[in-house]
Amino acid sequence: MIFGMDSVPGWFYVVAICVVLLFVFFAEWWTR
Q1: DSSP state for residue 8 in the 8-state scheme
Q2: What's the first-to-final CA gap in the chain, in angstroms?
Q3: How many structural domains compose the chain?
Q4: pLDDT band at 2 (very low <50, low <70, confident <90, very high)
Q5: Phi first, then psi: what are they for 5, rounded to 5°?
Q6: Model pLDDT, residue 22
Q7: pLDDT tens readout for residues 4-29
Q8: What whole-number distance in Å separates Cα of residue 20 and Cα of residue 26?
Q9: Containing structural domain, residue 30
Q10: Cβ within 8 Å of residue 27, ≥6 positions away
Q11: 17 phi and psi, to 5 degrees?
Q12: According to the model, what pLDDT value does residue 10 have?
């Protein structure tokens, strides 16, 4: 990680993963 594990809150990674998963899901659904 660029910022390191201590400088970034744990929930930030959870939110980021959720956003990425939702983006991929909608992208796959939209292009289908």
Answers
A1: S
A2: 33
A3: 1
A4: low
A5: -80, -20
A6: 97
A7: 566 767 788 899 999 999 999 999 99
A8: 10
A9: 1-32
A10: none
A11: -65, -40
A12: 79
